[in-house]
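Blinded run. Sample ID left blank on purpose so nobody reads anything into the name before looking at the predicted structure. Input follows.
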Amino acid sequence: MERFTYFYRSGSPFSQWYPCYFIVDEHTFNCAEQYMMYAKALLFRDEETAMQILRARTPREQKELGRKVSGFNDTGWNKHCRDIVYQGNREKFLQNEELLQLLLDTKGTTLVEASPTDRIWGVGLSEDDPRIRSRSSWRGRNWLGEVLTKLRDDLLLE
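Blinded prediction complete.
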């Protein structure tokens, strides 16, 4: 039977909003959300918004700026977004040893973002909803959980 590790909100080390520092291409990021929104802006060649995202201090501000990326289109984003989130989280966990251990400790489980409001990156259900216990009754895609599960499994193989 499939076992799950549920997470939600910025207090979880698996959250995109979890505060931690890591460096990619000489830029310091304060959370994986900042990296994701920065990479989103670069993907659509919006350098100005990318720089604003680097200066933004909170994930809420970073996400708001990410929503304003010029030239954005769903097709391009959906093609690349999971790779972007994978790369950002790879750096986040490899550069923060205590977080890496927490990720590796989930071995044998599928990570699940128990967000009742997110049906793309999460499952559209809260952790206390009984439907979350069965993949067949999820209301969302769980892209973040899938990315983190794949990242963990890849790191365990390295």
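Unblinding after everyone has recorded impressions. The chain is about 45% helix and 10% strand.
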